[in-house]
């Protein structure tokens, strides 16, 4: 079993939809949680960073961490075609461990 | 603008050939990393370096080698011993090698076999 599980998608939604992306994990020692966005043929860029449990909001993006369920989520409100990318979750207790990424397509 | 520059963007390797991927950063970061990305497998750590003249193997170091002679440079050599080198290679850095540090990435090098 992988330490971090992420549905590969693709997830296809119409423009303006609310998108929910999720990761589950098995290591209860993880304390730092991140979401990266990766456009095709580009490197990942940091989107959200959360320490321990709770919510964090930045514009249209909200990151949630539920340590009791070992589950993290990224919500995108009012999704735009420019949000079409692969979203990678990552988490750390020492070494950074990445999920395999979910491909998102936002249709105009 | 500070960042990480990877070159070349595309690289082709012949059988039995070693190739070197370049990674340069001007962020003044101490720690640098090399990852391999394959479809559906996420990022796998090849090597990392906490400081100049020091580096450690990651999860999939076999068939790869690195050097860290300067703070800003961390080249990766894919040797002929790596039998399946076709992948997207990503270089990253953090201010220090410490838990919880988000990593900054370059835009990758795509390596293919001729």
Can you describe this structure?
The complex is a heterodimer of chains A (108) and B (114). Chain A is mostly beta strands. Chain A has strands at residues 4-6, 11-14, 19-25, 32-38, 45-51, 54-58, 61-66, 71-76, 85-92, 96-98, 102-107. With 114 residues, chain B is mainly β. Chain B is built from no helices and eleven strands. Chain B has strands at residues 4-7, 10-13, 19-25, 31-38, 42-49, 56-57, 64-66, 76-78, 87-94, 104-105, 109-113. In chain B, strand 4 and strand 5 (42-49) form a beta hairpin. The interface between A and B is medium-sized, with 25 and 20 residues.
Concise overview:
The complex is a heterodimer of chains A (108) and B (114). Chain A is 0% helix and 57% strand.
What structural class do helix, strand and pairing data of chain B support? Answer: mainly beta
Q: Detail the poorly predicted runs of chain A.
A: none
So what's the overall shape of chain B? globular
User: What fraction, in percent, of the residue positions of chain B are helical?
Assistant: under 10%
Number of β-strand runs of chain A: 11
Spatial separation of the terminal alpha carbons of chain A: 37 Å
Portion of residues in beta strands of chain B equals over 45%
How many helices of chain B in DSSP terms? 0
Gross geometry of chain A = globular
Helix and strand sequence of chain A:
EEEEEEEEEEE
User: What is the residue-mean pLDDT of chain A, rounded to a whole number?
Assistant: 95
Oligomer: heterodimer
User: Kindly state the mean pLDDT of chain B as a whole number?
Assistant: 94
Write the layout of secondary structure elements.
The complex is a heterodimer of chains A (108) and B (114).
Chain A: E1 4-6, E2 11-14, E3 19-25, E4 32-38, E5 45-51, E6 54-58, E7 61-66, E8 71-76, E9 85-92, E10 96-98, E11 102-107
Parallel strand pairs in A: 2-11
Antiparallel strand pairs in A: 1-3, 3-8, 4-5, 4-9, 6-7, 7-8, 9-10, 9-11
Chain B: E1 4-7, E2 10-13, E3 19-25, E4 31-38, E5 42-49, E6 56-57, E7 64-66, E8 76-78, E9 87-94, E10 104-105, E11 109-113
Parallel strand pairs in B: 2-11
Antiparallel strand pairs in B: 1-3, 3-8, 4-5, 4-9, 5-6, 7-8, 9-10, 9-11
């Amino acid at each position: 079993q992988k330490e971090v599980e992420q549905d590969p998608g693709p997830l296809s939604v119409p423009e303006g939809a609310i998108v929910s992306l999720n990761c589950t994990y098995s290591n209860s020692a993880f304390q730092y949680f991140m979401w990266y966005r990766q456009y095709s043929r580009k490197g990942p860029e940091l989107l959200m960073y959360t320490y321990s449990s709770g919510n964090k909001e930045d514009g249209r993006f909200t990151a949630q961490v539920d340590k009791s369920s070992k589950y993290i989520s990224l919500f995108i409100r009012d999704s735009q075609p420019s949000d079409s990318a692969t979203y990678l979750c990552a988490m750390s207790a020492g070494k950074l461990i990445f999920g395999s990424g979910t491909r998102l397509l936002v249709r105009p | 603008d500070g960042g990480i520059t990877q070159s070349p963007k595309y690289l082709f390797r012949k059988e039995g050939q070693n190739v070197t991927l370049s990674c340069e950063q001007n962020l003044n970061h101490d720690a640098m990393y090399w990852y391999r990305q394959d479809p559906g497998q996420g990022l796998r750590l090849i090597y990392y370096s906490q400081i100049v003249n020091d580096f450690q193997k990651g999860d999939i170091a076999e068939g790869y080698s690195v050097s860290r002679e300067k703070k800003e440079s961390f080249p990766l050599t894919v040797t002929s011993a790596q039998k399946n080198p076709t992948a997207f290679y990503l270089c990253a850095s953090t201010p220090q090698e410490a838990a919880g540090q988000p990593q900054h990435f370059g835009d990758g090098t795509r390596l293919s076999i001729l």
